[in-house]
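User: quick one, fold this
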Amino acid sequence: MKPFHVLLAGSLLSFSTSAVTADPVFDGHALHISAVDVEEQPGLYQQIELRPAGDDLWRLHSIREGVTLRNIENVSLVVTDSTPVQVFLKVEGKYMNGCEELGHVSKRYDAGTQTLHVFMYYRHVPEGIACTADVRDFELIEPLPVYGAEAGEYTVTLNDEYELPLGFAERNVLK
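Assistant:
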């Protein structure tokens, strides 16, 4: 695992993130599912399309495997001093062309190891699209689901490459 940094913040943060519809949508012709988790990697399979095949069966029409974010230079946790505590994953790095940007983000908590696994994927770019050679810095802020966490020590991972410790002295709820 790569090194990490923890930053404490005393004020509210302003940020924007890309969103993907989490609920399946049926448009009358096909069932669209944004992402499907596998045990080892949440959100690995994305943009799934199923079409009716008759007799209450569905046929897989399309699916793509997600590509995790690369060229990450720094990963840190931003922890507010409010009660309940809010925690944000801050990821900094470079997009290596004009088409790269954040797509789907998946999170899964493993109670056995007290680890929150976060996977950040690139937005899918259809084949045949020409991308500029524009290298751009990025800073991504992703809220983490920590409300109600019991007192104790936890680990947050990003793309199975970065590992960050997180601890709560008491249960993280409104008082």
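User: anything notable?
Assistant: The chain has a mean pLDDT of 87.
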